[in-house]
Every structure is written in C-alpha cells, then in structure tokens.
Write a structure and sequence with these properties.
Two copies of one chain form a homodimer. Chain A is α+β, with helices and mostly antiparallel strands and 359 residues long. Among the domains of chain A are: 176 residues, Ribosomal Protein S8, Chain: A, domain 1; 41 residues, Hypothetical oxidoreductase yiak, domain 3 (Wheat Germ Agglutinin (Isolectin 2), domain 1, 2-Layer Sandwich). Helices cover 37% and strands 17% of the residues of chain A. Chain A has ten helices and twelve strands. In chain A, strands 2-3-4-11-5-6-7 form a seven-stranded mixed sheet. In chain A, strand 2 and strand 3 form a beta hairpin. The two termini of chain A are 20 Å apart.
Chain lengths: 359, 359
Amino acid sequence: MEARNFSYQHLFDFSKSVFVSIGCSEEHALIASKVLLSADLRGVDSHGVARLSGYIRLWEKERINARPNIHVVHETPSTAVVDGDAGLGLVVAPFAMEVAMEKARQVGTGWVSVKNSNHYGIAGYHSMMATAQDMIGISMTNASPLVSPTFSKERLLGTNPISVSIPANEEPPFVGDMATTTAANGKLEMLQRKGQEAPQGWVQNKDGLPTTNASGVKEGGALLPLGGDREHGSHKGYILGSVVDIFSAVLSGANYGPWVPPFVSFLEPSDNPVGEGLGHFFGAMRVDAFRPANEFKQHMDTWIRRFRNSEAADPLQPVQIPGDVERKMEKERRSTGIPLLDPVVKDLSELAEKFDLSL
Amino acid sequence: MEARNFSYQHLFDFSKSVFVSIGCSEEHALIASKVLLSADLRGVDSHGVARLSGYIRLWEKERINARPNIHVVHETPSTAVVDGDAGLGLVVAPFAMEVAMEKARQVGTGWVSVKNSNHYGIAGYHSMMATAQDMIGISMTNASPLVSPTFSKERLLGTNPISVSIPANEEPPFVGDMATTTAANGKLEMLQRKGQEAPQGWVQNKDGLPTTNASGVKEGGALLPLGGDREHGSHKGYILGSVVDIFSAVLSGANYGPWVPPFVSFLEPSDNPVGEGLGHFFGAMRVDAFRPANEFKQHMDTWIRRFRNSEAADPLQPVQIPGDVERKMEKERRSTGIPLLDPVVKDLSELAEKFDLSL
C-alpha cells in the first residue's frame, strides 16, 4: 500500500486546527494533538492521526464533548476520582495524570481513577509524563469489548493496555506499554489488508475456537488474552485485562466489561449502561518516597545496562529495553517525517474539506 | 507417584514446631506456618510444606535469620521501605502488608517496597489480607533468576509473580495470582517426573532456542516470559517481570535481576550483590478512597456475575473468575486433607528426626 510522508509539525498543526474547528479551546486542542501525534512518532500508527476522524465522528454523534468541565469529584490525600465530562480522553488523561503527580508531591504517591471519558491515545504518553519529575508513572485504560476471557466465546474485555514508565539516570527511561492481549488489533488489520493469516493464539472464531483467520474478530470472534490459550497462560492475560477494567471503571464509576462504549461511531453504546463513559487509571510514585532519587536512578542505569548487554540468542537481534524501539522510531520520524497510508491521507483530506482547512 | 493425605491442622502444627525449633518466636512461627500452608490449601503445592526443608537449609547456611528485627527504614504518608533483616519472607511480607494497609487507612493508599527478605510463599496470601478491610491488595516479589528476557539466552529474571485481590459484596473476592512466565516451574517439574515433553512456548534451551524438553531449564536453558515468543507477546511478559523486579528491588535496595539470591541452598548468592536479599512490593487501596465501599462492592458483584455467566465455548468448561479454582481446592482440602507426594513426606520425616518432632 502506498504511503506519503508528512512532517510532525505539519500533522500537529492540522490536528490542532481540526480540534479547534469542533470547538475545543486552544489549550485542549494543543494537548490533544500532542498526545495523538505521540503515537505516530513512536510507531503506534493505529493510535495516531489515523484515529482523528474517529474522534470527530464521535463528536458529531454528541458522544464527545468539545468543551468539557473536567473535574475531581472525590479525593483523599493520595487518591482522586476525576469526571471527564465526556471530553476527549486525549485531554482528560493528562489532566488526571497531573492530579496524580500533585498528590505524589504531597504524600509520596497519587492514584486517580477516571470516569466519563473516551479513548485516551497511547497509554505510554501519560505514564511518561512522570519520569521527568523523578516519578514512576502508571497508566491504564479500558476499551471497547473485543477480547474473550479464557473459556468464553463472548467479548467482555477491551485490549486494556498497561503502561509503566520508570526514570533512570544516564540511560533513557524504561517505558513499558502493552495491550493485555497476545496481539494488538492494529496488527490484525495489517494482516487483513495483506490477505495473510494470523498466527495461532491471536484470534478465536465466533464459536470460541482457535483460528488463523485474520478477519476472525470482524466475523464475530474475539482477540485472545495474552497467553493465547489456557496451556500458554491466557488466564493470566485475562487477569491483567480484568484488573485494568476494574481499576479504570469499577473504582471510578465508568462502564466496565461488555458495557464499555464502542470507539466506532456506527455502533451504539449500551441502552443500560452500568456507569459513565469509559474509564482510566493513573498512578504516580515519587522515587524519593522510597530511597534517594540519585541512588534509585543509578541502580536503574545498572539494571538497564545489564539487561541490554545480556547475551543474545541471535547476535543480530540484541536484547532490548522496553521503550528502545519506540525511541528509535521517534528519532527517525522527527527527522524524516511520518508515513501515512493512502486511506489515512484520504480520511484526513475529507476532514480538511469538512472544516475548510488544508492538509 | 504415591501420595498420603494429612490434615491441615496436623501439617500446620508440624510446620510451626519446625519454625520454633530453629528459634522463631511463637508469633513468627505461627504466621510463617499460616502463609506456608495457605499454598497447600489453595493447590499451589510447589509453594507449601514441600518447601519447608528448603527454608531450613537456608537457615542452616545462615542465610535466613530466625530472630529478625523487621523494621521501616524510610517512609512518607503513603509509602515505606521495610528492611526484612534477612528474616523469613513468610513473616516479613505480612508485616510489610500491614504497614501498607495502615497507610491506606490514613491517606487512602499505602505502598511498601521491601529489601533484605527471602521467599515469601504465595503472592496471593498477602494481597488477600486487604479484602476483609474493604481494600484492594497488591503483592509482588522478585525471585531467583530462571527466566530469559525476549531475545536473550541468559537468565535475568525470576518467575516474578503479581497478585491482585479485590473485594466484592455477596460474591467472593477476585483473586488474581500469576507468575509472569508462560508456566510455573512447578508444572515443569511435574512433567519431568512423568518423563513428558513440555508444550512449545514454555522453555528455551541453553542456546536460547525453543525446546519441548521439560528438563531444558535444568540443562542451562530458561523459562520463557508470558507470551512465549516475540510473535505471541513475550516482550509483554518481559515487561511485567521487569516491573515486578524494579518495584520490589530497585525501589527498596534489594538485589535485582541476575543478582537475586537463589532459593536453593546449594547455590551461593552473588559475590558482588547490588543490594540486600530479595525484594517484595505491596500495595493497599481503600476502595472508599475512590467511591462509597458498598457501591464499589455491588458493582464488583455485577462484574463477577456477568463474567462467570458468560457463554462458554465448551459448556462443560464454564468461564471462571480469578480465585474460583483455588477456593474450590481449599474447601476440598480443608475437609479431606492435603495430599503430599512421597518425596515430600520423606523430606518432612527427615526434618522431624532432625528436630526430634513427630510428623
């Protein structure tokens, strides 16, 4: 499939103009674009500008509020619940992460559960906010149900990602950012486009049986929890996805499990919701709430170097630290631009036309 | 292999007598036995009395201190670091979990990283302490290096389990308790005894290549992170195991990665340790620090019922909630007793002889 390269700045400015066009404040349009584009920079193409038109369609259906009053509805010294007022998750999430970090400044750690939000972009953006402050950042979110628990043929969980970012001293931070499924939905969509089969352990069909059909999810099947099947530990992926769901939504009062509203605008949310919008969960821990920050960060350097320099099974494929691949991609794309596939360019051109902008 | 049944009370009394024999206080012997035996009750046979002689051998080598001064070395309102003083992890862990829960009472949540400890039994015992107090409990620990990061042929991580326990109202609590590997080492040992092959994705050989040899780990290979290989998400198991290692040991000042001291007494700890003993990490979150406890617990009932009643792929294999299997086992074993394999009975008989006790 053909692709065209766009500079980061160009796509950022375009995205910001689109968000301003639907009524977002300058400040919200800026932060939303920064979060959205961070996915493209880091190579998580499925969560970047390719989704911009999806957010706009949700706004057109009045399922996203461009002028939200995002606010804390309950708190203790180390916790808070934030109501996103149906705002863009891209804006709600950084607000909530700031609340977590402020609490960490006060009492060592801060933990914030969020309701009434929407898709928040890549989990890693939010956890990474903490590392420059010598804090560990944690970010997770529930999402539209696409995943079946072990033994089930129903879709009850989202790909429910977890991200943990940890500062080091001379080394770059450790940035883990992972869906709690074997494979992300974006990877399946790539295989569909190429007409290729999916590996075993990624997908089950509508009867709950293993399949290598890359369109299995679209045809009523489901993504599988990390592990793939019971013998390979899928009950562990199911535990992880469930914990993300409960921390994000049962703690906050958002929708959970099969009630989580779909991201795509052509599917309607549940008639009998169990909460408001979808949910996120954030944590911030000051490292000096445990030991002096310089000590901690020097040991992180030792940890990172020992792992990175460990003997590889294949010398051509060195051992990597979580975050390495994305950092390399970001460096490259900041210099040579972000490649967008033709259908994405077409999508953005339609947005440009709709709001009288130029792409 | 032959097995004999013993009552819970019998094994508990025996274990307590053994701990008293090495010099533990009555109080410590009691809690250590309770934690140890909880593994046998819940069906995690590899972590129960089968390990009692292992703890005693470490004490004989002066690597476990029977009279530890377990104490907080640093704290903030929501965090603490605990020094286990080389005590039994079985005793250090409940102490640290109590500290986390007391902090949660004060400021909403409590987070405790522990150094200078030893093997702490099953992760789930400690996280479950929280649920009766209407708190979410979190427990994790690092462990002797047996696991290779994705692409590596060195063993740099332990099976590093994570447990999360969450209270419900009428339903029993959600209790997730999982190693961050595809399969636990205990399962491999079972296959070895039976002379059977291991499934693909559990083990790699000493060259870092996939193997179905159930003795692969003993022959210089390694267990694989949850996911098994890169295509099935082993980099995610590697992230999870790493986060457990860092929270447990880099935050506290314990040994991490390949420096974690081995549980078996015939292997010596590193000559150049990067910290003290091994590390754990505990969290406690008061659910009413987020929303009223009854609201939260009623929604947990809804969550649990929706998942438990979801349509199964095979009607003979219903969908389970994390904790269901272990609760069923505990009920059964409290009534009919705990089966111990002959080698374990022999091991305990030798302990009885050594300390002039009767099994």
